[in-house]
Amino acid sequence: MSGPQPPAPDPIAVAAELARSLPERMRALAPACVPAPQEIREHLERAWGLDAPRPAAEVVRAIAALLERWSTHVVHPRYYGFFNPSVTPEAVAGDLLAAAYNPQLAAWTHAPVANELERHLLRTLGAAAGFGAPDEFLAHFTSGGAEANHSALLVALTHRFSGFGREGLAACTRRPAFYVSAGAHDSFPKAAHAVGLGRDACRKVGTDAAYRLDLGALASSVQRDRRAGFEPFFVAATLGTTACGALDPLAELAEFCARENLWLHADGAWGAAWALVPELRHCFAGLSLADSLTLDAHKALQVPMGAGIFFCRHPESVRRTFRTATDYMPAAAGSADDPYASTMQWSRRAIGLKVFVALASAGMPGVVGMLRGMAARGDALRAKLAAAGWSVVAPTPLPLACFTHAGLGTDESAVRAAADAVIATGDAWIAPIRAPDGRWLLRACITSHLTTDGDLDALVAALSTLRARA
Ligand SMILES: *Cc1c(COP(=O)(O)O)cnc(C)c1O
């Protein structure tokens, strides 16, 4: 006779322990592993028929093992890739609360405190970043930067063209056109498609030698469009372009947009977080003049995906864009906005909880210190690359370096092969990118608050070894 069975391990405790110890285990893993789809599919067919129950704690362990085996580990301190952060334990803990309590954000009355926590946080964050005083803007969380940019375009259309909400583009007597730099994020043409403008309405404007939007080119493009019968209505300045980390000249753009009656959106999905750092604030001059702003907490702020934020200085236009009324939704509470009627989403996870727990734990000084440290590591990376004989192209104050050397050239295949060779060492993940002028460059971005100077040395050493071998 066997004695009483020990209680089954608690799946939440197992998952929490795996999450807690992940940073220690992570350094032993290669940042990247890219299996063939078939390899994973065959494993799932074989091992995961889903036809019988299994102990949940075992399932949790097995799935974590799969994630460790078959992922590009964006939380790895030597993942120098596309703005995907190492996450802080505080943020992970906040996300667990969101999953467990599962507040339904759609209607204020269903999640009063979760809604108010988000409101409080976003008013504080927007003001700290220099977007404006808390009463000057409305803000909400989004799935990410793409949704925030899409929201900006939609709100700007609704703001400008009075019949747009009811009749769509038929209400626009002239065809709307808008402007982004050649280095802007591709969520803009996608949003142009989604809102019915069509992708061609997104004009890609040339850049200067630092890969920043060129004001002269913008002015010519706007004039040309007006003469051709289009109605320019919107400009998106990028604060930290994806490939090169360029900061478009926001203050000059604000002046231009005010003069030309154009909505100015600042896409700072990654870079705008550094507006929180006092000594970098000057790089974001003009932010208080932008009509709207995108900022992703799931990038520089080291919070799990997804946590985009849309800030807008025209609350009534936001409400007009997303308004709706139904019989089955609970009635609004006093002056509070119901998210289902003032944002793109309807049912929504409490995205803000993880951000709130992370920011409240670190305090603003802690967040600023972390961002300052990452920026300093960016400076160190550029200096180390230069000292090792690399030419750093179009430097930015943000922690990102694009670099090349004469022997490598700027053709796609050679630069891709160089990045692949770094990844194949298992020591680091870097990317090949095409700069707005067409040159292919190597790109390394400090996306993790855990990246140390030693990690940077390892990257530069790997690059030097591979270059010597080439
Ligand atoms: C990441 C990024 C986006 C898209 O944001 P998601 O969070 O991936 O949806 C848009 N613009 C810029 C500048 C970005 O860095």
Please describe what this structure looks like.
- It is a single chain.
- The chain is of the alpha/beta class and 470 residues long.
- It is built from 14 helices and 11 strands.
- Helix 6 packs across helix 11.
- The N and C termini lie far apart (68 Å).
- The structure holds pyridoxal-5'-phosphate (PLP).
List keywords for this structure.
seven-stranded mixed sheet; 14 helices; alpha/beta; four-stranded antiparallel sheet; binds pyridoxal-5'-phosphate; 470 residues
Termini separation (Å)? 68 Å
> Helicity level, as a percent range?
40-55%
Rg, Cα atoms, Å:
24 Å
User: Approximately what portion of the residues adopt beta-strand conformation?
Assistant: 5-15%
Broad structural category: alpha/beta
Distinct ligands, ions and cofactors found in the model: pyridoxal-5'-phosphate
Regions with little confidence, pLDDT below 50 for 5+ residues: none
Strand order of the largest sheet: 1-7-6-5-4-2-3
Mean pLDDT reading: 96
Shape: globular
Number of DSSP strand runs = 11
The number of distinct helices, counting runs of at least 4 residues, comes to 14
Sequence of secondary-structure elements: HHHHHEHHEHEHEHEEEHHEEHEEH
In short, what is this structure?
With 470 residues, the chain is an alpha/beta fold. Helix content is 42%, strand content 12%. The site of pyridoxal-5'-phosphate has 14 residues, from α6.
